[in-house]
Amino acid sequence: MLKRMKHYVNNITNSVSLKKAGISAMLGILTVTFLMPAPGPATKKPEEISLETKAAENKEQVEVQVGAIEPTETRNVREPQISRGNLNRNEVILLAMVIEGEAADEPYKGKVAVGSVILNRIEDNKFPDTLSGVVYERLAFESVMNNQYKRPLTEESIKAAQEAIGGWDPTEGALYFWNPVTAKSKWVWSRPITDQIGRHVFAK
Q1: Which InterPro entries does this entry report, sorted A to Z (predicted)?
Q2: Residues 6+ away with beta carbon under 8 Å from 185
């Protein structure tokens, strides 16, 4: 009888131990579950982040470059001109010399204008048809008469000669120019005036 009672007690003890072990295991699982961090957004690989950064930088650079470009319609672009023919080096220098002699103190546009008048005369049948013929025509240019055209050349006068040869004519085809302060001829004032640039009046 005593043996049976001991066996019965042992069975109950073992059963309670198993239940406690099961409860502990369940508690452990629940604890691990609650302590685990909640799933967050997927982490991008370093190479993916690098590519996105480069793409953003390239976009910014393109936008800056496009913004820096001035619209074509707002630019100060000179209209294409027709070349006045090919002059040799000595003729370019001669033209620049007369420009220097006649318009040394004039603005750059005024220098080009004087060169244009000389070239316009070559193309007009009332004047000689060569550069030297126009330049050395009697009483044509004051600076040639008093040798002021032989003064040291400036880079600006050479460039003005090249632009006039290249076709830029600010005078709109003028054949004459004069200083209105010193001009005494009534005849020149009878010519159709095209413009005044600096201290020179230009006329056809």
Answers
A1: Cell_wall_hydrolase_SleB (IPR011105), SleB_dom1 (IPR042047)
A2: 178
Closest CA to 197 of 112, 90, 92, 104: 112
In this structure, are residues 104 and 151 in contact, taking their beta carbons and an 8 Å threshold? yes
What is the DSSP annotation of 12-23?
A: HHHHHHHHHHHH
The architecture CATH gives domain 89-170: Orthogonal Bundle (1.10)
- Contact between 135 and 99 (Cβ < 8 Å): no
CA atoms within 13 A of residue 76's CA, in its CB half-sphere? 0
The Cα–Cα gap between 128 and 134 comes to: 5
User: Is the pTM value of this prediction over 0.70?
Assistant: no
The helix (H) or strand (E) run that includes residue 157 is: helix 155-166
Q: pLDDT digits over 142-192, tens only? A: 999 999 999 999 999 999 999 999 999 999 999 999 999 988 888 989 999
Domain ranges of the chain: 89-170
- Tell me the residue type at 51: L
Tokens at 190, concatenated: 């009878």
